Amino acid sequence: MNYILEYWRAIEGGKYVVSRRVRKVYEELARRIEAPEAGARYIFDEKKALRPIEFIERFCKHSKGEWAGKPVTLELFQKAFISALFGFVDRETGLRQYREAMFYVARKNGKSTMLAGIALYMMIADREAGAEIYCVATKRDQARLIFEEAYNMIKQSPQLRELVRKRKGDLYFANTFSKMEALSKDSGSMDGLNSHCVVIDELHGIKDRNLYEVMKQSQSARRQPLLIMITTAGTIRENIFDEMYATACNIVDGVFKDDTFLPILYELDSREEWTQPEAWQKANPALGTIKKIDDLQTKVARAQNNPNELRGLLVKDFNIKDTLSTAWLTYEDIDNAETFDLARFKNKFAIGGADLSKTLDLTCATLLMIDKDTGKRCVTQMYWIPEETLERRVAEEKIPYDKWRDRGLLRTCAGNTINYKDVTAWFLEMAAEYKIVPAWVYYDAWSARYWVEEMKASGFNMIPCIQGAKTLSLPMQNMGADLQAKRIVYNNHPILKWCLTNTGVKTDVNGNIVPVKNQAAKQRIDGMASLLDAYVGLTEKYEEYIRTL
Length: 549
Hints:
Layout: H1 3-12, H2 20-34, E1 42-44, H3 46-59, H4 76-87, E2 88-90, E3 100-104, H5 111-124, E4 132-137, H6 140-156, H7 158-163, E5 164-166, E6 170-173, E7 178-184, E8 197-201, H8 209-217, E9 226-231, H9 240-252, E10 261-265, H10 293-305, H11 310-318, H12 331-334, E11 349-355, E12 363-370, E13 377-386, H13 390-397, H14 401-406, E14 410-413, H15 420-433, E15 437-444, H16 449-457, E16 462-465, H17 469-484, E17 488-489, H18 494-501, E18 503-507, E19 513-517, H19 526-540, H20 542-546
Parallel strand pairs: 3-9, 3-10, 4-7, 4-8, 8-9, 11-15, 13-14, 13-17, 15-16
Antiparallel strand pairs: 1-2, 5-6, 6-7, 11-12, 12-13, 18-19
């Protein structure tokens, strides 16, 4: 029995409606099975593919709801995933191809049952001596959900009860000296782990990317380790979830290749599909079996009548990435993968914006140009933080400033404060290297006076921008409308995107708006503030600037 082929044929025949990326993955897996390339490194071993499925359906039972006490019968989409995960092996060594997987699925689609079964198989039947299985989440209670489900399965199975015993902090399989344990960020030191299998539950909630990295590194001594990330969408942007989701999408879309990573992304292909019942299965492969259709219909009807319930529905039931409910814009409004080449604007004028800081906030400089042919607003930015605070802030805030620096998106200033001369140097660098000169540079009026004088001495036209509703409201509304219309092209800059998702809005009695931080203090909005200063300039100087194009 080949469940991958069965699932693919059902998709192809229209029995199952799946996302574009799920369809693409299973089409390729089926092709590799039916028409394998001569000499290909990896082949499909049907016996190894079926072994974990047979283990789960033979020994595991449900512990909750209407199926409590009944043997687990996996859905076809689950069998296909497990078959792919365990069935593709190295032709020479017989070791598994896939060492890492992202299983992206909406809530209430049977993920805990499937993962608990896989975790038990990896501890008991994967033939790995001293296997260490870890159920991981950002909080211990979440991490214990899969662990407890696995323990409930053991308690209901006479065969497993004889083999596995519950100790104070783990489940122990004495035959191979293997164990299963729940871990979280608050579990204490994770040094010395030798993981065979790691299951990360609700990846979207993990703000500390170090947790992922530590667990991944803990597998380095194993022959064929397995790390499975399972999650719905989330509302905290530019964390480890966004990084791994981007990796999964890039692999499916052919942007880059990673033979050891299996991406299964059940999601709507567009936001508009949430009102189309025929598309709901794209994010909910168990809809109509494990997940109740009438329950989802009720949630959709409520969201159509109550906008306050819409964001949670989109994120958790349809896997549409979003921002927090208090955010200024949705993630879909903000996201724009379009890029442009700075060289197109050589010998052109721009409008500058600057948001300065001393230590904690980011300093950001912006150049905004209008494409004469399309009317799109093209944006390039640079960010700065003090060099002496970089490592501490990465460790404490769990924000990837170091990775952004390595990519050239952020620079460090010597010492423990921002040196505004570095900002001046960037504007001069853009003028020298790209021949892009700001006709005006709008800056927060709070900014250090000596920097303004230095910029003036360097030939820049500096205009103070008062940070109040009278000045900011109309430019912020225009900027929001342009983001929603995809008229702002920012080269998919991750720091600006992060700042935009962190931005909330404060409205006064007259309907005027100003930006505020939407989340915790460490979630910065300085990139948005710098761009908004440039938008103040665009609003005030539009006609004059257009004449320069």
